[in-house]
Amino acid sequence: MAPANKTRVAILISGRGSNMASLIAAAAASDFPAEIVLVASNRPEAGGLAFAAERGIATLALDHKAYPSRAAFDAALQAELVATGIDLVVLAGFMRIFSAGFVETWAGRMINIHPSLLPLFKGVHTHEQALKAGVRLHGCTVHYVVPELDAGPIIAQAAVPVLPGDDADALAARILVQEHRLYPQALALVAGGRVRLEGDRVMFSDDVPPADGALLSL
């Protein structure tokens, strides 16, 4: 049975949007608790915009270079999100840092996926960081967005082994497979009200088994 009132989601991208595509595919199911109503990008040339438009989803290009400041860009994006009636913002390869005010406005209503097992390897070049550190496990993390970069409360993680002979590209490819599996599951939990943020802690509903709550796989 389809949810009576689906959570209205905006996905923000900066490129091809492979995670966006996995979310759109998942949301096509009638019982998925979220509806993707907008895909927006800070780069008008982002390939993911055409992908979304071809599937009947509204798109928006806000070129960050056209705005005099970070705050001005964030204000323009905020106005569009409000006008579209967005409940939840989902970052999928969105390569901009928001102002603290924007993040605070969406506290508990904005999530991101990061290609490492946070709190390890924040920032960029995470696969290179993991190989340099010599870790045996690497992976991806879905977390709530807070003003500090890649520091928000963790919703879900998936791990893969680091194999002998791995380079950054091979590791990235295996982790991307897990990202495409993990992010739709995590979005379903958040959009369906089975996960919520209380203060700086992620709380799971009683009907989410511990294994599903962690969503940790090897």
Provide a concise account of the structure shown:
The chain is built from 7 helices and 9 strands; from the N terminus they run E-H-E-H-E-H-E-H-E-H-E-E-H-E-E-H. It is α/β, with parallel strands linked by helices and 218 residues long. It has 2 domains: 1-106, 3-Layer(aba) Sandwich (Rossmann fold); 113-218, Formyl transferase, N-terminal domain (Rossmann fold, 3-Layer(aba) Sandwich).
- What is the spatial order of strands in the main beta sheet? 3-2-1-4-5-6-7
Uncertain residue ranges: none
Structural class assignment: alpha/beta
| Approximate strand percentage | 15-25%
Assigned CATH superfamily of the largest domain: Formyl transferase, N-terminal domain
**What is the name of the CATH topology of the largest domain?**
Rossmann fold
Family: Belongs to the GART family.
Domain Formyl transferase N-terminal: 8-187
Organism: Methylobacterium goesingense
GO molecular function, one term: phosphoribosylglycinamide formyltransferase activity
